[in-house]
Design goal:
The complex is a heterodimer of chains A (274) and B (426). Helix content of chain A is 78%, strand content 0%. Chain A has 274 residues and is mostly helical. With 426 residues, chain B is an alpha/beta fold. Chain B has 3 domains: 157 residues, Beta Polymerase, domain 2, CATH 3.30.460; 141 residues, Rossmann fold (3-Layer(aba) Sandwich); 89 residues, no CATH class. In chain B, strand 8, helix 11 and strand 9 form a beta-alpha-beta unit. The longest helix of chain B is centred in the last third of the chain and has 38 residues. The chains are: A mainly alpha (274), B alpha/beta (426). The interface between A and B is medium-sized, with 18 and 21 residues.
Chain lengths: 274, 426
């Protein structure tokens, strides 16, 4: 199984690269063969990725959520899976190129740095931990998808404003659809991050004797959660709509990436287990 | 191939001449009846605002007389003063190619015109109804319709709005998810506003308000587009709740300034799409800088139309490839016309009759004789068909037209004129 894991670890980013390339050919080149095969290729990549995660879990006796690079491969899977569900439900295949690029990027980074961990601390085997990490991953996937739709909204918004027509104008769904999809992701991000924080707070005193509530990752996530909450509030009761909410969504994504990178590289706290 | 087409189009004559030889459906019926009475040629006639074309196919020796057909069209429309140069005559495969190009929209005034396919289809329907289109022209027109449908589904020849009013609606659909849930306000009752309002209604806009300084005119347009007439004085209050504003009134100065709209925008929810087609412009261009407000004037819309036209032109080579494929297909059908398909259809027809009759009556015979009955009827059918099949196969010394004429007569006699090829069913 070790050989299989090593091979698939290399094949997966390549598979996502091919999927992204095919979606790009369909979007920009309007090629019939690319349109015909792109969804099937995504399904194949997802199936391989799922198998990889299952085999890895069996082989190392823990779900792949214990390091940032393990989390990245699960995140890549979640983003690609979420997009696939959106594609099936909306019958719109035009945004795949943009979203799957993110999945490819996460998998690419993960494949380079991921390590094989055979021993996992006991605290990571708690069911609270599973719920905590699952919620956080769903939250981050929602942040990613919301940001991509927000980015597409802003691109189309400026093109329509400037009367610049072209492939982006032709192929993307309308602004209201993009806004709706992005805002759904936005709300999901708030919901799942909130759940991850709540579960974390319940789990912390049971697991650690000395808990610091100023753990960098915890503080960063709470700040991010508050930011998304403020965005929802601004849209519901304030006069924020359209472009402003989409800018907030894109900024939220970059703040997430930036803060998580900074926290993981420069700070240590109880969130570091290895 | 004794095929001929005589036609007048935007390539050969201006509108004031074309409109004089435009045939209504009733006029086409009358013309087809007269042509059928005069000769045994198959004929199809169709007429649009940009072209009137007559296709004639003679199963006999000679090609139909182009001069006679041209004069027939002119006499029918009492327009014999129109010069010969306004018409273009095509023969054989040139006529086939032309018809395929017409059906594909590459010969249209507006490249990729979606109407032409329906008009060609209607021409064939009228000819079949008048018994003027036989097996050849039916097959030819069905092949043309098939080519046209392929051009539209396999290329982007018909995509993108190519009129200003339609471009405005297309833009609205790029902003809003469901027009059925939106409100539009048409300010003014000019031609362009009317057209845009009609397009919006066709796209099932939720609500259409018509505002004009003259109440009667707004009520008249509202009745036309199933809208609601509203008072000009209430314009500001309506602007708070509409999603689309089409402005085309003649007025000095701006109807709506950026400051006014900024104020209105505070009380609004969602995007506002404004089409300013007034000359001079009705809306302050500075409105464009406001968030979630999309302002388009005539120049912007013309830019979009021009881009779409160029994209359609770029698709012509792809359409031409489809036309070439279909021409090859039609050519091979025509080349095989003299024997094989007709023999197969005739054999099937007679064999089906034999089979049905034997099945219905077989119980009347002694079981020991039943096999013999089947064998006997087969032999009778075979012997009856032997001579006609041999004559069809070995048309030695016959001209191509004689053979086609013979096949045509045979198909008509046995009622196998209607195409069985479902692929070309129109």
């Amino acid at each position: 199984m070790g050989v299989f894991i090593d091979i698939v670890n290399v094949v997966l980013p390549a598979a996502y690269a091919v999927v992204v390339w095919t979606y790009g050919k369909a979007f920009f080149g309007d090629l019939p063969w690319a349109k015909a095969v792109k969804s099937h290729m995504l399904q194949s990549a997802l199936a391989l990725h799922f198998l990889f995660l299952v085999v890895r879990t069996i082989e190392f006796n823990h779900p792949p959520v214990t390091t940032i690079f393990e989390i990245l491969t699960v995140l890549a899977f979640c983003v690609a899976l979420a997009y696939w569900i959106i594609e099936i439900r909306s019958h719109s295949t035009e945004t795949g190129y943009f979203i799957l690029n993110i999945a490819f990027f996460f998998q690419f980074v993960s494949s380079i740095f991921i390590r094989d961990l055979l021993e996992v601390p006991e605290i990571l085997q708690s069911s609270f931990f599973g719920l905590h990490v699952t919620s956080a991953l769903l939250g981050y996937s929602a942040i990613t998808i919301s940001a991509v739709y927000g980015f597409l909204y802003l691109m189309l918004y400026h093109r329509i404003k400037a009367s610049k027509f072209g492939v982006i104008y032709e192929k993307l769904p309308n602004l209201e659809t993009l806004e709706r999809m992005s805002y759904t992701g936005f709300k999901m991000a708030f919901l799942f991050l909130g759940l991850a924080i709540l579960v974390g707070f319940l789990w912390l005193p049971q697991t650690f004797l000395e808990v610091s509530y100023i753990d960098p990752k915890l503080v960063g996530t709470i700040v991010l959660w508050l930011l998304y909450g403020a965005g929802i509030l601004a849209k519901r009761v304030g006069d924020w709509r359209g472009r402003r909410v989409m800018i907030l969504s894109v900024c939220g994504f970059w703040i997430t990436i930036f803060s998580m990178s900074i926290v993981n590289i420069w700070f240590t706290g109880f969130h570091s287990f290895y | 191939m004794n095929l001929l087409s005589v036609g007048i189009s935007h390539h050969t004559a201006p509108l004031e001449i074309r409109e004089r030889v435009w045939f209504s459906a009733d006029e086409i019926r009358v013309a087809l009846a007269k042509l059928r009475a005069e000769s045994d040629a198959e004929v199809v006639l169709f007429s649009t605002c940009n072209r009137t074309e007559l296709y004639a196919f003679s199963p006999g020796e000679s090609v139909p007389d182009s001069e006679r057909l041209r004069m027939f069209l002119l006499t029918e429309k009492r327009a014999t003063d129109i010069p010969e140069t306004a018409f273009k005559t095509r023969k054989g495969m040139e006529a086939v190619t032309h018809l395929f190009e017409v059906a594909s929209g590459v010969d249209s005034l507006v490249i990729g015109d979606v109407q032409i396919l329906a008009q060609v289809k209607e021409g064939l329907a009228l000819a079949r109804e008048a018994d003027a289109a036989g097996f050849f022209l039916t097959r030819l027109f069905q092949a043309a319709l098939h080519t046209g449908r392929r051009a539209r589904s396999e290329t982007r020849i018909g995509e993108g709005a190519v009129s200003v009013s339609y471009a405005a609606v297309e833009l609205a659909e790029k902003i809003f998810e469901r027009l059925a849930e939106k409100r539009a306000l048409v300010l003014g009752a000019g031609e362009m506003a009317q057209l845009t309002a009609k397009h919006l209604r066709a796209r099932e806009i939720g609500e259409l308000l018509i505002v004009n300084r003259t109440r009667e005119r707004s009520e008249a347009l509202a009745a036309q587009v199933k809208g609601t007439a509203a008072a000009y004085e209430d314009l500001a209050s309506h602007l708070r709740s509409v999603d689309i504003l089409i402005s085309s009134i003649s007025v000095e100065g701006y109807v709506l300034t950026a400051d006014q709209l900024r104020e209105i925008n505070r009380k609004r929810d969602g995007a506002l799409f404004i089409i300013d087609i007034g000359v001079p412009r009705n809306i302050d261009p500075a409105v464009r800088d406001l968030e979630n407000v999309f302002l388009y004037d005539l120049d912007n819309l013309n830019g979009l139309v021009h881009e779409n036209e160029q994209k359609r032109v770029n698709e012509i080579p792809r359409v031409q490839r489809i036309i070439e494929e279909e021409l090859r297909e039609f050519g091979s059908w025509f080349n095989g016309l003299h024997a094989t398909p007709t023999i197969a259809a005739l054999t099937d027809l007679v064999e089906n009759i034999r089979k049905t009759e034997v099945e219905h009556n077989i119980n009347r015979f002694d079981p020991r004789d039943r096999e013999l009955v089947d064998l006997l009827t087969r032999r009778i059918v075979k012997k009856i068909l032997h001579t006609p099949i041999v004559n069809l196969k070995n048309g030695t010394g016959e001209s191509r037209s004689e053979r086609l004429s013979k096949i045509s007569a045979l198909r008509k006699l046995f009622g196998i004129d209607h195409e069985k090829d479902a692929r070309h069913d129109g």
